[in-house]
Amino acid sequence: MTRVQELYPDNKIVLREVGLRDGLQLVKTFPSTEAKQRWMRDEYAAGVRHFETGSFLPAKTFPQFADVRDMIATVASLPGAYGIALTLNERGVNEALASGVAEVATVVSATEEHSQANANRSRESAIANVKRLCDLRNVSAHKPVVNSAISMALGCSIVGAVDPKEVLRLTEKLFEAGVDMVAIADTVGYAGPKQVGELTAGAVKIAGSKPICIHLHDTRGMGIANASAALDAGARVLDGSLGGLGGCPFAPGATGNVVIEDLAFLCESKGFTTGIDIEKLLAVREILKSEMPGEALYGGMARAGLPRGTAARVG
User: Fold this and answer.
1) Residue segments in the chain with a per-residue pLDDT below the cut of 50
2) Rounded Cα–Cα distance for residues 264 and 241 (Å)
3) What is the dihedral of CA 258, 260, 264, 267, to 10 degrees?
């Protein structure tokens, strides 16, 4: 069994909690380290096993991630749980590799315009950086899984529509560079189910036995419908955040990531076992309400609860 198969077994649905990083990227107040550790442990008790722990960005700029090493240590202490850490430059890559995190994530932009505006580099330069990350991983002690997301893959905040052929070209280039998986990200929530399903199917075909992750935002209320389309098209790894925490600086006023509690119910309703106890997962929201009382939380399951006669752990 390879490392990527250990983290992402074949024919198994994996829901990844990205609220601890993506969900906290833009907030003005954020939970204490102790509260974030409770959040992680309580979600683990509910059946979640994959956690985006934070990012290796400058602590002065992103104080909410200054404790990323503590969070990586916490997830490592939970049997069968895996941490993910975001890196955007070689310094961050080296720090992530030294931390022992199970998965290192990075990002390239789907469009040249967004890549230049957001990272001040071309897409080809970004892919070269990904290859450098993979080379560093290959000579590291524990050889973590490497995941590259393609941001703005289903619509760009600068140019609007994105050619899916370009996204699939980038997917091929990233696998050639040595990544273990690619995440297709609807960063600003532009897409609908048809677009998501078609792009997912194309990416899954390119990936072969390697996983494709689908990262959705609920900007226009399409998150769950898009997730359903992605599942139908062969995606088996989906990102979500507790209470729909998150947002994007390029989509002012937008809601955040697709709600992980609703994702779990969607998967179970479609016959995909997640191993997640939805009622236990919903209870974790109390930590966010206590720690971030001014932050809006979303979710149909939180509003209406499980249908009568439905077991909390449907699968």
Assistant:
1) 314-315
2) 11
3) 30
